[in-house]
Write the structure tokens for this entry.
Amino acid sequence: MATRIKNIDAKKSTSFTRITPTMAAKWLKESNTKNRRIRKNHVRALSAAMARGEWVKTHEAIAFDTGGEMVDGQHRLHAVVDSGVTIPCLVVTGLSPLVRRQVDGGAPRTIADRLTISGDVSMPPFHCARFVSAANAINRNLRGTGKKRRVTYGEVLHLVGVLGGSIEGLVAKFGGRSHLRSGNVLGVLFLVSWAYEKRELDTIMDALSEGVGLKQGSALLTWRNYIIQQNSRYVKTSDHGDMQFRKGVKCVAAHFNGEELKLLRQGGWERDLERAFGTRGEIASQLFGTPTVTTLQIAAE
């Protein structure tokens, strides 16, 4: 027999509301007793987007049932508290408790999906996915491990603007090559594209993809062999993603400083990053931008 909800329409309302950090904290404390586990990385990404002024009103609501229990929106409210930013958001009350069976049951849109749908870039879906993977590899390594999170949509668009048209050709060239389409490899190449002339990027791309101009003991040959080895199905243990990115940085630094590199060792990659590109903070600020007072004011409107 179906569950009957009494007075289901008694508290129904729908309105856009300015949600302050104080309001969000109160709702989380008093009304968030039947919800899923918090995804901290998702909260951090939402919080960063709010702090950068990227939040926009959508049809997606903070929702409560007839008993006043929250059925949707806890991650957004935690992000409001974390960022300290007031946001405009749709709030719906008086829903049946049965909506919990349906909420968030669909397929979420990734940043790559949004890039494809929005038309902000002209790359096909597969290339958009590779681009976002590379952006995340840069983000993880430059911003440290203390607050791991994925890049926001606004940060990806900023990166697109910084790198310009070179990224589409780069992703297209390597997108179909299984050993070169890793986000960790592309991430290092994005740094090269940002910091050096196109001819330098072309030299490295030709060396990695075709083995052009490689000499025994050269840093690029060592990097190419390492990439191929890491992608071999016969390798029993491979380096984790961040280590692949960092060893790529070491190879590029040796290449631009005219040094041979026959053996890739762990450690010391930050020194190599500075030798080739600059400090972590400087690079991250240039590639992804930083929130300003102006964007915070816009976010609060």
